Amino acid sequence: MDPIANESAALMGRVAPEASALKHRSRTTEKELDKDIAEMFIRRLCQLLDTEDFFGRQASLSPQKKIERLFLASPEDKNKSDFNCAVSPKVRLQVPLLFQAVAGVIEEKSGVLVQSSSEINGEGFGRALLYSDRIILVLKSLRAGFPFPFTSEEKVIRYGVACVEEGLAFMDKFNEMTALYGTDGLEG
Which domain of life is it from (predicted)? Predict the structure, then answer.
């Protein structure tokens, strides 16, 4: 059925079956995580958290406890950030560490040097950029700090794995296109 017809049918109270299926799509059916990438991401994030722990006070903790104590924001921090639109120190810590961990996993999976650059201002607006040479692999805009601050480990891992998969997919597509046409065909 034509999208315009779906729209007008919905306005008149008559909804086509395929239109109602589109409306009732939910987020409860989440994509299965790649366990290998998730483990690599957790390991990289914990390595970065260990470099921030100068005296090794948290060295004996499990990776999950390290992420919980040193990386995740408390619900109070999240509410405070939501209320006054100011970015908490936890968010300023989370943004660069998360994208450095993602860059490390992409490096490990692809064998190519990947750089990360991230910035966030006091109101939560900013960007994160992962690139290799002249190729931008991942570009994320931060609006009012969203999706930061993370308050659960699962959300951190899902977001990190999604960024890694996005970067690897773009790198594969770039390699495929340059194999066919060379890099001259991709110049703007």
Answer: Bacteria
pTM: 0.76
CB 101 within 8 A of CB 167: no
Supply φ then ψ for residue 144, to 5 degrees.
Answer: 55, 35
**Using CA of residue 20, residue 26, residue 29, residue 35, what is the dihedral sign?**
positive
The backbone torsions φ and ψ at residue 177, rounded to the nearest 5 degrees and listed phi first, read: -70, -40
Where are the alpha helices (H) located in the chain, listed in sequence order?
A: 3-11, 17-23, 35-52, 63-66, 75-84, 89-110, 153-181
Q: Which position has the higher pLDDT, 119 or 16? A: 119
Neighbours of 142 (CB within 10 A): 20
Establish whether the linkage from the previous residue to 96 is cis, with ω within 30° of 0: no
Grouping H, G, I as helix, E, B as strand and the rest as coil, residue 135 is strand
Query: Does residue 143 carry a pLDDT above 90?
Result: no
List, in order of start, the domains of the chain with CATH numbers: 1-30 (no CATH), 35-186 (1.10.3100.20)
